[in-house]
Amino acid sequence: xxxxxxxxxxxxxxxxxxxxxxxxxxxxxxxxxxxxxxxxxxxxxxxxxxxxxxxxxxxxxxxxxxxxxxxxxxxxxxxxxxxxxxxxxxxxxxxxxxxxxxxxxxxxxxxxxxxxxxxxxxxxxxxxxxxxxxxxxxxxxxxxxxxxxxxxxxxxxxxxxxxxxxxxxxxxxxxxxxxxxxxxxxxxxxxxxxxxxxxxxxxxxxxxxxxxxxxxxxxxxxxxxxxxxxxxxxxxxxxxxxxxxxxxxxxxxxxxxxxxxxxxxxxx
Length: 268
What we know:
Blueprint: H1 22-35, H2 40-56, H3 73-85, H4 96-112, H5 123-137, H6 140-143, H7 149-161, H8 169-176, H9 186-202, H10 213-263
């Protein structure tokens, strides 16, 4: 469990690295958790919760190049975790899996540094979420529908990044479960509304005709929103393809570097 007693709620507590050993302690914890065998899911969420707590206390943040070019707190923390967990792997922050871990650590740093909820937040909300998650995991009927704990925390972090208010109990509970494919998406609902309004304004609905300006305006607004959703999906697909290409290139480079290192030849 993370604690919410820090005076640096929201990650605003300044600290002098030379006099503060908390970052070194976090790196040591990252190494310890990374070296822990078995219980992979629990180890991962414990690590991310520790990161969230440290960000809440102001120990870490997302300052770019904090430890040198291309090295922020998330990269240092991930390096400690990865080197302990994968002793045969040369750490490369550009390689796919390592880069993904760095990204999740950054998201939890952002979560811990969220400063819009007042004293003790968002740690209070995170504690409540994880306590509820552990309760749900005790019951077979709900346990089989849960996302894994680490992904649950990351999902909360993503939601909070775009939010000005804390997530309520219902939101937190909903996020804990895998999405039901039988439940209509927002896009599905909007398509249904657009179809219904279109029939009303054109006089083709069984209930009759309602060709008033407000119906026309609502129908056009739905068209615009659906187009925006389609455009966003198209961009997301483009970004995913680009990400895949970058990951493949980085993984290939990491493999080459590992082979060169194993052969004893210097890599430049």
